Records
---
Amino acid sequence: MTMFLKSFAAAIVILAAAPAAQAQTQTQVVPASREQMKLTFAPVSRQVAPAVVNIYTKRVVRAAASPLFADPFFRRFFGDVPGMSQERVQRSLGSGVLIAADGTVVTNHHVIKDADEVTVVLSDRREFEASIVGSDERTDLAVLKIDGGKESFPTLVLGDSDAIEVGDVVMAVGNPFGVGQTVTQGIVSALARTNVGVSDVQSFIQTDAAINPGNSGGALVDLQGRLIGINTAIYSKDGGSNGIGFAIPTALVRQVAASIAKGGKVVRPWLGASGQAVTADLAQALKLPRPIGVLVNHIHGDSPAARGGLADGDIIVAVEGREVDDPEGLRFRLATLPIGGDAHLTVLRGGTEKAITVRLVAPPENPPRDKTDITGRNPFAGATLVNLNPALAEEIGINSGLSGVMIFAIKRGSVANRLGLQPGDMLLKVNERQVASVAEARKLLGVESPRWAITIKRNGEVMSLVLGG
């Protein structure tokens, strides 16, 4: 790295030393030595490579030997026929990064999802069986552990992803297409990309460093060899690199890894407020100089937001001094902060900037979920109902301000399934009676009726269904 910096500095000195008259005539200066011509990323690559690993997974699945054997009609009359199902092994590959000397590896959730076996291969080709410490689908991050006895593994220092800028030179390290460890170089193309659709908690670093299948879970590093992101997705029409890759910033990686290491799962802070992005039209109506922030339109009655003084109509423009442009950006900023601490929000209220401090707590299990399987002769037979609370809403990635009775799951072939009911539907009424809890739903559905009138809410749309009578 020192040689690279000296070479780069020498080139700058030569250009800077040219007389002003020569600069105006765009006179080019020929490098005077081999050292001045040398530009290399090799020192950074040597520093980073030992801490980036290859990950191989294996999953055993059972599949019907013939489509006929999977037919329910066939199974009904002939039952299980010897040899009707066969086992096959699915294999996949990816990359990972050692972030602690004890063998802690961070990678993508989708790399190890449903894996029966996970093998980690170091850059020196040694192989270790890995255990899954925890995984978080909403951020697409997972933490693995390999056991090297008393060995101290090489690691990457977690850099500050908030300090990077568009145009900074970066390097991506991973195992594309399984060819082996590969280093590519590019720049930071954009920051805070929130509409990628890869995960629920998102604010990605975009880079043009070549990233391909197999790079997932690998390292995106700066020229000091510090980890600034975990490569997770590409934009591609043919499966190859088109110069648009996305990495999860270390600001989120650090918090998720710490949460998984502590309890095996991720618990994100609960604000208790929701809203919408300020569009150009909204900005004009609100007399804002430009579209920015999240317009708050709902606050949970007993939440950190309410206790901190946040109000409907406030516009959250920054968290800890970092601008937010939409609800996804706000969710990301909060997810990078630890539970038990404070979040300092900058809001606009009536055109005046105001500072609000909220205490970060885990989303509460209130009311209790009361998960219940519905049986009997009613439209919801085969459905599982739950009381929606902030903790459950956070787990499944929906607005934590919602409450009521929700369909959590539905059995295939059940009455509820045949009627077209879906997980996520909110149950509002049964036979014109309001339903506020699973206990009330259980009571109303337990009464035999020749006619059923039910009202549900799906994706904000209220729908009614009448059966019988």
---
Amino acid sequence: MSAKPNVQDEFLNEARTNKQMVEIVLLSGKSLKGTVEAFDTFTIKLRCRRDAVLIFKSAIAVIGPVREGR
């Protein structure tokens, strides 16, 4: 019996390996755009321009791809 795929890990790993820009909206309403460098059970390391930011997943409302022209 195979383990059920973790949708969250699949999404984050695809964004990381493809170096796809994502937008993370926090529960506070603040929005961060960058590339996923790493992630674990509780956090995401996001590269925003020159800085690396560690975001606690419990603070995230929405994660999605950044669309061209936005």
---
Amino acid sequence: MEGHFDELFKESHIFANREVLSPHYIPQRLLFRDKQISEIEKALTPSLRGERGRNVFVYGKTGTGKTSCVRWVIERVKELPIIKARISYVNCRIYNSRYRVLNKIASDHMPIYAKRGYGVIDIYEKMVSWIEEDGKILIVVLDEVDIVRDLDDLIYTLTRANSDIKSGGITIIGVSNKVNFKEILDPRSLSTLYENELVFPPYNSPELASILKERIGEGFKKGVIDDAAANLAAAIAAKESGDARLALKIISKAGEIVEEGNRNHVSINDVEEAAKYAEEEVAYELINTLPENQKLVVYALAIMSLQGSKYKRLDEGSDSYMLSGEIYNRYCSVAESLHREVKSSRLYRKFISDLEMQGIVTSYESGKGIRGHTKLIKLIYRPDKVKDIIEKGLAKESEAETT
């Protein structure tokens, strides 16, 4: 039996430190983000002095360094000797409701109150009392804040708390992939926000190349990857979206291909092959976590994007955007063919809104030139890949149902 595991545990001749190549790794130095880091630090300075600071909302596409910069600053804040601030970092993909967020805060700082049985009001009152006892400032970092189901209630609760707190306060750092996420907030929630906004631009090819080369120096054995391979991986990622995570996925996958082939050097061909896997993996991870009906809406949109719309844009002559009504009709047909319950047009509109929040589709309201007034919707990922990914998932579900 031992012989079977020898291969698994032997030292890699390609990788020196795989952790450095992870998108979740926070390096000591964050390249090309000095300005953004400085802005975050500046916004938090009042809170560190024990004063009520301004809320900060950080926007940018996936892989632009938003979370890394915020976490980098937070880690430096924790190293400060004496501050009145306390920090809760909340991953809203996990803690995706007001109750779960408040419970996470309680778990971080008042674990006795985080147990089951306490409701929102109870936790809220305990949190306010805990802040007031020595006038501390609670900094709540809400990563992927737009995922929270009852976002209005959460924002309203956290911001209005400052009216109830006699000494101390709460500062919010919101991180989102959607620059326009505040549009979904109720006016009462918006009226309580007093915030700085910080937008992270996508990385360009030279920037991604520099980031990759720094990680490669730590993550790979010497001589495995040359500048040409790193530059190509950066160029591919820059062309797709300026996503540093995609660039890291490509170069890491290229290393795996070389290691599996028992070779010692990553070639241009290895990077090109790795890019195909990496792009599919990014789309696969995102789309396969969707609820069933949202997945069927995306599937309908992918099919239509490949076939083309019956109605072309009069101002652009392009059918890359699909009419919302057409997509709904195709979704109904797809759901019926798979013997799934067809959801109402009202729920369908919510699905589209959710998909847009997750960065899978983009949309805008039509103007003149199209029959009536409607919403035009476009799939962000390549429709052929999306179609294949969903069909593979449907096939697996079908197999599971018959076994």
---
Amino acid sequence: MLTNPLAKLSFEVRQYLLVTCSYWGFTLTDGALRMLVILHFHQLGYTPLQIALLFLFYEIFGVVTNLLGGWLGARLGLNRTMNMGLALQVIALAMLVVPSAMLTIPWVMAAQALSGIAKDLNKMSAKGAIKLLVPEDAPTALYRWVATLTGSKNALKGLGFFMGGLLLATVGFRGAVLAMAIAIALIWLICLVYLQQDLGKAKNKPKFTAIFSKSRAVNCLSAARLFLFAARDVWFVVALPVYLAQTLGWDAWSVGSFLAVWVMGYGLVQTQAPRLTGRTSGALPDGQTAVLWAAVLAVSPAVIALALTFNVAPAVSLLGGLLVFGFLFAVNSSLHSYLIVSYADADGVALDIGFYYMANALGRLAGTILSGWIFQAYGLAACLWFSALFVVLAALLSLLLPTQQRAGEVPPQ
């Protein structure tokens, strides 16, 4: 007699798989949509700054969503915020399945606003769920699960970039968006049926003022996260794809494929962060670990900027430097993802994680706008110098994080 193999798994593992699969599906389409919008509107003749502005509301509403989404998650439950995110993404994608004449900047910005809300509701819900599904006395397991979720998500985001370039070249913008809307709608229906109803709901209903974290560790880490992601997006979001297409002469397929491979490799490195940062020796990452890895990362964009400034094999320097930057940034990002889940208060975990990802979204917002403006005015090398500066600021803020954390210890709040 055949049996369902999933039935043999514990309830917590089944919920983890459901949350992860939802996160995976959402991330795949989110990455594809970003690449579709960048390449499609570049082909239509939009300037780098105009393309950056298309994502303005995406990032602004991401900031607001993370700030308020954590509060909603604590009051309503993470299952509801995750389902809300999936539903909003279906609506956002449907808004783009219109004739080309209707794809004006305000319309696309409105669709991107809904997509930004959806993405951050989904991410906040997924990261918060992990905290609740892993036993409190298993910090190394928590690090491993967070690294796996974060790394696999970014690998799939890279696959989404590849998928976006492929779909644009084959079925066109409207066909690609319609297919993704149908896929997300199916994932949403599955989550409505099977996701635990009260997952992440706080025992005591938090007041609205609780959206601002009272934890020094969470506040310092959030500030460091803001500058870390501004450092990535100030050159990666708009400047790099446009530079590859405009200066190096790459077509949409080549740009999408390269960025896909980069992000997939970046995600795979994230899954190995526990090995790279000493978990196997019994140590867990702390503030000193974050400072060290940020300091090393700051060197990478500075070296690439120097190579571009002095015209030292620009293509080779850029692509090779990008691989080094991706490896180092992946470890930094995974470290931060573990630390925030570790620092977050278990009762109302969505509040601390929501506040942290609000800072993350604010960093992306600043990086995205600066990416379009600085690249258009001063070029890619200037974007890279700003990237190095932002990483240095992240390292300095990490000096304020708790240190000397060992396996089994709870970091101070």
